TrEMBL record:
<comment type="similarity">
    <text>Belongs to the iron-containing alcohol dehydrogenase family.</text>
</comment>
<dbReference type="Pfam" id="PF25137">
    <property type="entry name" value="ADH_Fe_C"/>
</dbReference>
<dbReference type="InterPro" id="IPR056798">
    <property type="entry name" value="ADH_Fe_C"/>
</dbReference>
<dbReference type="Pfam" id="PF00465">
    <property type="entry name" value="Fe-ADH"/>
</dbReference>
<dbReference type="GO" id="GO:0004022">
    <property type="term" value="F:alcohol dehydrogenase (NAD+) activity"/>
</dbReference>
<feature type="domain" description="Alcohol dehydrogenase iron-type/glycerol dehydrogenase GldA">
    <location>
        <begin position="10"/>
        <end position="179"/>
    </location>
</feature>
<feature type="domain" description="Fe-containing alcohol dehydrogenase-like C-terminal">
    <location>
        <begin position="191"/>
        <end position="385"/>
    </location>
</feature>
<dbReference type="InterPro" id="IPR001670">
    <property type="entry name" value="ADH_Fe/GldA"/>
</dbReference>
<dbReference type="GO" id="GO:0046872">
    <property type="term" value="F:metal ion binding"/>
</dbReference>
<dbReference type="InterPro" id="IPR018211">
    <property type="entry name" value="ADH_Fe_CS"/>
</dbReference>
<dbReference type="InterPro" id="IPR039697">
    <property type="entry name" value="Alcohol_dehydrogenase_Fe"/>
</dbReference>
<keyword id="KW-0560">Oxidoreductase</keyword>
<protein>
    <submittedName>
        <fullName>Iron-containing alcohol dehydrogenase</fullName>
    </submittedName>
</protein>
<keyword id="KW-0520">NAD</keyword>
Length: 385
């Protein structure tokens, strides 16, 4: 490392079976009696939400619920949610859901103490006042949004995504990782979000900005995610696998905002937009091709990844072990039913060159371990196609 590195994670994390009971402690910690709740639509009639509302009612906590949050939530959705929170005069925010729901909750908490429009805070450290206290209950093991310093909101007027980043103020104050929260997620969502979490850990570990602390977190995240993703997708009520997935996702979420990500996310962001695919599936489609491309830049790190993924590397050279990691990644995607090519999800050959141009202009070379030109991206898209 040629420059000083950073590590910070201000979130208090409760984890394990019945961790949901810690909501009571969190509310007491914030001296809260008016709570704004952002929640995924699919959870409104769930046992999870019933348990939470029963607890809130028993403690006399007033709350208002905001749902109807779309994937890649818009600034208009944030404005509507903030209106609900203002009318309640909310003292704290509870997010129950995936990354989109958590992003809306973060945005509402920012506006509650800083005012203005969410557009005003695009960029890094653009707001100065601490947001409302936030409690996050992830219901997918994927984004790590509960501990990440970013919040992504779509500006529909300009047709672009705004990234609002603050390493200290954007992570939730308290995260609750309970296997019950992910027990009803559909299998395909579990697979796609799980691969997303794996890619966070994988790309953060091989990033040019990695440091010893992020390395330690990412290697264990890779181990937890790669060894538990199959059994979790097969049976979401497997509490041991579910908790391992939640913890792995959170560990990766603690790092990638510091290290940055690489070519998988770079390519996937444009694939997802062009083909209207989920973020996790877009990552999964690009992952094996990019992993093989990046191996040359970091064979020692890939060899460590192979070990973390459970490959038997005894007697293998470093390069052989590194190649084992790439094959293990391919096997993982195949076992989860990820389509092997972009064409199988609707891509057309004429899309590839524009996608490569977008990826080349996106600026990921500061993090990706192997320098990547427009021609490299074009070749990667063609290989993935």
């Amino acid at each position: 490392m040629n420059v000083p590195s950073l590590y910070a994670c201000p979130t208090k994390i409760y984890m394990g079976r019945n961790a949901l009971g810690k909501i009571e402690d969190a509310i007491q910690e914030f001296a809260c009696d008016r709570l704004f709740i952002a929640i995924d639509d699919a959870l409104l009639k769930s046992a999870l939400f019933e348990r939470i509302t029963t607890l809130l009612n028993s403690k006399g906590i007033a709350f208002e619920v905001f749902s109807g949050i779309e994937p890649d939530p818009s600034a208009n959705t944030v404005a509507r949610a903030f209106d609900v929170a203002q009318k309640l005069d909310a003292q704290a925010v509870l997010a129950i859901g995936g990354g989109s729901t958590m992003d809306v909750a973060k945005a509402v908490a920012i506006l509650a103490t800083n005012g203005g429009r969410i557009h005003d805070y695009e960029g890094i450290d653009k707001f100065k006042r601490r947001p409302l206290p936030r409690i996050a209950i992830p219901t997918t093991a994927g984004t790590g949004s509960e501990v990440s310093g970013s919040c992504v909101i779509t500006d529909t007027e300009q047709n672009r995504k705004m990234s609002i980043r603050h390493a200290l103020f954007n992570p939730a104050d308290i995260a609750i990782l309970d296997p019950l929260a992910v027990s009803t997620v559909p299998a395909h969502v579990a697979a796609h979000s799980g691969i997303d979490a794996f890619v966070h850990a994988f790309e953060s570990y091989i990033s040019l900005q990695a440091n010893p602390i992020t390395d330690a977190l990412n290697l264990y995240a890779i181990e937890l995610l790669s060894r538990n993703l199959r059994p979790f997708v097969a049976q979401r009520t497997n509490e041991d696998a579910a908790l391992a997935m939640l913890c792995g996702s959170t560990l990766a979420g603690m790092t990638f905002g510091i290290t940055g990500l690489g070519n998988v996310h770079c390519m996937a962001r444009f694939v997802g937009t062009e083909l209207h695919l989920s973020h996790g599936l877009s990552n999964a489609l690009c992952l094996p091709t990019v992993a093989e491309f990046n191996l040359a830049a970091s064979p020692a790190r890939f060899a460590r990844i192979a070990l973390a993924m459970g490959c038997n590397v005894q007697g293998r050279t470093e390069l052989e072990a590194a190649r084992d990691a790439v094959q293990a990644i391919r096997d993982l995607c195949m076992d989860l039913g990820i389509p092997p090519t972009l064409r199988e999800v609707g891509a057309k050959e004429e899309m590839l060159e524009p996608l490569a141009r977008l990826a080349a202009d996106a600026g990921y070379n500061r993090w990706n371990p192997r320098h990547t030109t427009f021609n490299d991206f074009l070749r990667l898209f063609r290989q993935a196609y």
